[in-house]
Amino acid sequence: MDHHFTRAVDDLLLTYRENGGINYVEAAATLPSRPAIDAACVELLSILFPGFHGEPIVHAGELPEVTLCRIKALHARLKPEILKSLAAVNGVAASDEQAEEILDFFFSQLAGLREKLWADIDAAYEGDPSAHSFEEIILAYPAIEAIAIQRIAHLLYQHNLPLVPRMMTEWAHGRTGIDIHPGATIGSHFFIDHGTGVVIGETCVIGSHVKLYHGVTLGARSFQKDDQGHIRKGGKRHPNVEDHVTIYPNSTVLGGETVVGARSTIGGNVFLTESVPPDSLVYYAAKQIAIVPKRERHAHAGSKF
Predict the structure, then answer these.
(1) pLDDT digits (tens, 9 = 90+) for 182-200
(2) Which of the following CATH numbers is that of domain 184-305: 2.160.10.10, 3.90.550.10, 2.40.420.20, 3.40.50.410?
(3) Global confidence as pTM
């Protein structure tokens, strides 16, 4: 029986040798660890929302010591993953100085980031009549978790750290169903109502006081290819959404040159590939819904009932 297993192993080993780039035999030593990044996301939420995430804090007097311990633990967890991430992409070992520079920048931004998140929470409270308290939003709204992790990851993305930012947003995507690329630039007071199925691309720029509903896609329209037929990387591929825009469920806005003007409203199920000026209302005029009493409907259908 073992000879069946041996053949399978031999075939797999052959692909391991031939298919470079998809197999890291020593992955634990050369690539950032997904469990470590997942744990870092959990720790970051406990730092940004103490008392809501992580271990409970019994007394306010514990907060300074607990916060210091959490920052130290996060530093210890992230540093080796940053070093591996830099080495995996650059092909050479990264220095401690490089990792410390990124971490110093990152930790210096957390206080300001927390202020941005409170603006997002306020937007959720003002934008959702079913929200009864800020506590409910922090504890139970998936969008806040997804936006928090994206804003965290965006800091690292801005500092040109590879792999780790995308791993962070994918952790949030798996938990919330909201897929926001770490490269997306998002203004203040951002709210995603319900959120499931929302996709926001890498080069998307979103203004302040923007509200999205579930199923909204801010994506790319098409991809340019080189002479060999390969997709060109980079470039502006995703739309801009200006201040005070609302986009209703299951609408799609595509293209790097597409701009949704300020204070505009995009109705549900719209497919948009061109810019709209400020103060626009976009909807499908041809869609009409007829509502009639059931008895009248049956009568038209020839039913005796």
Answers:
(1) 999 999 999 999 999 999 9
(2) 2.160.10.10
(3) 0.86
